[in-house]
Specification:
Elements lengths: L5 E10 L2 E11 L5 E4 L6 H8 L7 E6 L2 E2 L5 H5 L2 E5 H4 L8 H7 L13 H13 L15 H14 L4 E5 L7 H16 L5 E6 L11 E6 L2 E7 H4 L2 H8 L4 E5 L2 E5 L12
Parallel strand pairs: 3-8, 3-9, 6-7, 7-8
Antiparallel strand pairs: 1-2, 1-4, 4-5, 9-10, 11-12
Helix pairs in contact: 4-5, 4-6, 5-6
The chain binds adenosine-5'-triphosphate (ATP).
Adenosine-5'-triphosphate binds next to β2 and α1.
Length: about 270
């Protein structure tokens, strides 16, 4: 049996007497796509930092692509993990054309300084077209819209042919139409036969499209629920993580969340 893509066991992280993560167990098999959901401060970013080697565990084990944290060079392993996060946006030079930003992903560098080979040019253009940004090749980073930037960053991440692609709140800052278009793209990407395993970090159940097969729900640094989407994404579990009763609905293969009627409280009178 092949090793799981990711196997995290009893991971705890403490900093300055604060528990960021407590006894996290999370196993991702190849071919699965996961959503990580939880309220502000529940530990989502800390978990991502731990698995990309930017936050050292206090205890527990992380196994990524069959390699154990602490025993392998995590800088090499990190190259197999694509990370699309808004934190990256500030690091891209504003005068860099989109095609160069994409190609820089192959070399894990920001601000591409080397000569572009014809093969890299072809691969970069193919990915730009694939992400629906083919016409943006010469557009400068500083001129791109938020939605366009997200597509460029995904193309950039795919340039390194990652086994795991992490999308950290990729819809923040997108208008409703751009968000829907972007979610369609992500759903289609996940269904590609050679797609990397996707991990989507979000606060919003609406963004968990049907291609996401599994979910990890975090609350206060702990796993509140984890597993197949049907059994994990439930009103009960979501009420637990958000600390208030919520109702999960399904419409047209999409999820939505609402508060029970009596929770709305305020009413208007004229
Ligand atoms: N280096 C640190 N030292 C102390 N506390 C930290 C440190 N890093 C994060 N924290 C705390 O750990 C908790 C989890 O933070 P984290 O950024 O992982 O949450 P998150 O789920 O990503 O939140 P959000 O949804 O708001 O982005 C927060 O309360 C945060 O203040």
């Amino acid at each position: 049996m092949p090793a799981p893509l990711l196997d995290i066991r009893k991971l705890s992280i403490l900093r300055d007497r604060t528990t960021l993560l407590s006894s996290i167990d999370w196993r991702v098999e190849r071919g699965e796509h996961w959503a990580i959901l939880g309220p502000n401060g529940c530990g989502k970013t800390s978990l991502l930092k731990a698995l990309t080697g930017y936050l050292t565990p206090s205890s527990g084990e992380i196994e990524l692509l069959g390699e154990h944290y602490g025993q392998s060079d995590w800088r090499d392993l990190r190259l197999q993990v694509g990370l699309v996060t808004s934190a990256l946006q500030a690091s891209v030079p504003p005068d860099e054309p989109a095609l160069e930003t994409v190609i820089s992903g192959k070399y894990a560098q920001l601000d591409l300084w080397m000569k572009i080979t014809p093969a890299d040019h072809r691969a970069g253009m193919r990915l730009l077209r694939f992400t629906g940004a083919g016409k943006l090749a010469t557009r400068l980073w500083g001129q791109l819209s938020q939605g366009e930037r997200q597509r460029i960053l995904i193309a950039r991440a795919l340039m390194a042919k990652p086994k795991l692609l992490i999308l950290d709140e990729p819809c923040s800052g997108l208008d409703p139409v751009a968000r829907e278009q972007f979610l369609h793209f992500i759903d289609a990407l996940a269904r590609q036969p050679k797609a990397p395993t996707l991990v989507l970090v979000t606060h919003h159940v609406e963004e968990i499209t049907p291609a996401f097969t599994h979910a990890l729900l975090l609350k206060a640094g702990r796993v509140a629920a984890s597993g197949a989407r049907r059994t994990t994404l439930t009103s009960k579990n979501l009420s637990t993580i958000f600390g208030t009763p919520v109702l999960l609905g399904h419409r047209d293969h999409r999820l939505h969340l609402r508060l029970p009627a009596r929770e709305h409280g305020a009413s208007f009178t004229s």
